[in-house]
Amino acid sequence: MRVVIAGGHGQIALHLEKLLAQRHDAPVGIVRNPDHEADLIAVGAETVVLDLEKSDVDAVAKVLEGADAAVFSAGAGPGSGEGRKDTVDRGAAVLFADAAQRAGVRRFIQVGSINADKADDPGFDPVFAAYLRAKRAAEEDLKARDLDWTILRPGRLTNDSGTGQVKIAEKVDGGEIPREDVAAVLLALLDTPATARRTLELVSGDDSIADALSRI
User: Fold this and answer.
1) What is the pTM of this model?
2) Exposure pattern of 143-167 as b/e (b: 16+ CB <10 Å)?
3) What average pLDDT does the segment 65-88 reach?
């Protein structure tokens, strides 16, 4: 399986690329900074240097040609302002979905946020609220597309070692989840076509990933 991953140097993406390579799939990570290529190569991924904030649909579609699936796991990251939350968390996601359709890649998995539907709730920091609005807009755009999409909304991300024990449902109470477990769930979603056109929330729990997905 050839899987193209936007945000290829992110921690979740690096875990996913390693998992794909370990089972002899072909992960391709899109990175903005060429200095990051070595980290992807070290986990077994092919690299493409491309800035999704500055690229166009034809250039991204060329990267996606021949892929079996696309995973959007990019984000502006900590320290970025409201503007980049929009250009990356929304704009780059929309561009990546446009390119997937142009390239004929139907399977599309997008990493969102568990609170994306609460972006307008009072009390959020303005930058975090902008992040949630960008994620929500990217979800709404994706849901309108003729793609076999799945949106995965993880809870608060941690760098703890993965346990493989999760809770997955259309709605879950707030919680946290190791990035390593998010990557393992993304891998399982790639293998589970029946999750297409579903929005799923994810936190740590008591079920194995396989059991959790079998119940949704």
Assistant:
1) 0.95
2) eeeebebbbbbbbebeeeebeeebb
3) 89
